[in-house]
């Protein structure tokens, strides 16, 4: 039946048969390959038989949705096929990825493919290249190597042609750089500039990979371990009311390159650093506000104090409540009553004089507030204190 279809010279049929043959070939389905004996010529594959190799092409960073990824692959194949027909066979593998079958002599063309077609799509184009084989039947080895080469984009970055022959074996594990985690935690709390944090993130991965590349899943694990370590140091509770956003694990493990992970960490830790700076700045403002209230409790008001700390009354009132749990008036009343208690104990001033000194012009209102806060009237409190 296959021969009858091929005899028709129907281009669509030949294309379909060639794709099925190539998928069987790279899938190492030995039993199925026997049925193709003698038909390579009919499939127009002779030109690719001189030290053939497999390359895999993908658009980096596209959606993880399988249907959308296949659509990208089909568009990429449609763009590649007309221009590579004489040098390479273009087809989709069983997972919907673009594959190139080519004779090793034209391997330099892969760089041109990456450069020429990378700009036509919204994503960078990665190409993983396997080692050439002497027999068509062994091309599944080249295909597996091309897959491993694509995974190495994690280290090499997107928009690259990566040859399997250039990849060093991954180390099974690496020593965790505890000292850099400590330095990074301190840096987030006390750095003067965001660049200091970025340098520490780079140093963390330099130390992690100082003996060479490690398994990619190990890098993910070490990254999550770093974030958990920083969280245990109290950084995650930096400011519950701030815009600080807790890290998320799932986006990290879906990042395709080490540079993406570094960029995420730098951005996350820089935002945390800014949050801490803001919190410390707010603390300083609240301290100054309370200091003004204590020094000038006789005349202090929300409007007068907000002018001294260069804030609007509304924002200072909100910030004060968020930071202390009290309203501005509650804090001012506590300060006035504490000062009144001191004067009642240690002076001979009359009650109405004390009321005026702490900011109450109505002595009866002062007495009401004092009794509400202390449980005793000013006169009874003075007597109980021995005056």
TrEMBL record:
PROSITE patterns: HTH_ARAC_FAMILY_2. GO terms for molecular function: DNA-binding transcription factor activity; sequence-specific DNA binding. Keywords: DNA-binding, Transcription, Transcription regulation. Gene3D superfamilies: Homeodomain-like. InterPro entries: CdaR_GGDEF, Homeodomain-like_sf, HTH_AraC, Tscrpt_reg_AraC-type_HTH. It holds the Pfam family HTH_18. Signal peptide: none annotated. Residues 287-384 form the HTH araC/xylS-type domain. The keyword Heme does not apply. The keyword Aminoacyl-tRNA synthetase does not apply. This is AraC family transcriptional regulator. It comes from Paenibacillus piri.
């Amino acid at each position: 039946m296959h021969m009858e279809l091929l005899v028709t010279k129907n281009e669509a049929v030949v294309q379909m048969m060639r794709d099925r043959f190539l998928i069987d070939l790279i899938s190492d389905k030995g039993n199925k390959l026997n049925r193709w004996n003698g038909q390579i010529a009919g499939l127009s594959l002779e030109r690719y038989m001189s030290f053939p190799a497999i390359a895999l092409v993908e658009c980096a960073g596209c959606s993880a949705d399988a249907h959308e990824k296949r659509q990208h692959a089909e568009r990429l194949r449609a763009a590649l096929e007309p221009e590579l027909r004489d040098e390479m066979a273009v087809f989709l593998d069983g997972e919907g990825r673009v594959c190139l079958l080519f004779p090793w002599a034209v391997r330099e063309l892969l760089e041109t493919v990456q450069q020429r077609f990378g700009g036509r799509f919204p994503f960078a184009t990665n190409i993983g290249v396997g080692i050439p084989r002497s027999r068509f039947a062994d091309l599944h080895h080249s295909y597996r190597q091309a897959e491993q080469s694509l995974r190495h984009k994690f280290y090499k970055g997107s928009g690259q042609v990566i040859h399997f022959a250039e990849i060093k074996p991954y180390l099974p594990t690496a020593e965790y750089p505890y000292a850099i985690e400590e330095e990074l935690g301190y840096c987030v709390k006390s750095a003067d500039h965001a660049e200091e944090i970025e340098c520490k993130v780079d140093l963390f991965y330099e130390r992690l990979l100082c003996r060479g590349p490690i398994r990619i899943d190990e890098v993910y694990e070490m990254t999550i371990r770093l974030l958990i370590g920083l969280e245990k140091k109290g950084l995650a509770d930096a400011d519950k009311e701030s815009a600080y956003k807790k890290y998320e694990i799932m986006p990290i493990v879906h990042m395709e390159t080490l540079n993406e992970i570094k960029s995420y960490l730098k951005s996350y830790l820089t935002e945390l650093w800014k949050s801490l700076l803001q919190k410390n700045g707010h603390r300083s403002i609240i301290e100054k506000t309370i200091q003004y209230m204590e020094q000038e409790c006789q005349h202090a008001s929300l409007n007068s104090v907000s002018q001294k700390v260069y804030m609007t009354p509304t924002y200072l009132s909100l910030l004060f409540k968020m930071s202390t749990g009290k309203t501005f008036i509650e804090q001012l009343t506590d300060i006035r009553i504490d000062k009144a208690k001191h004067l009642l104990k240690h002076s001979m001033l009359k009650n109405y004089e004390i009321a005026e000194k702490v900011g109450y012009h109505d002595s009866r209102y002062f007495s009401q507030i004092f009794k509400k806060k202390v449980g005793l009237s000013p006169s009874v409190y003075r007597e109980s204190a021995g005056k």
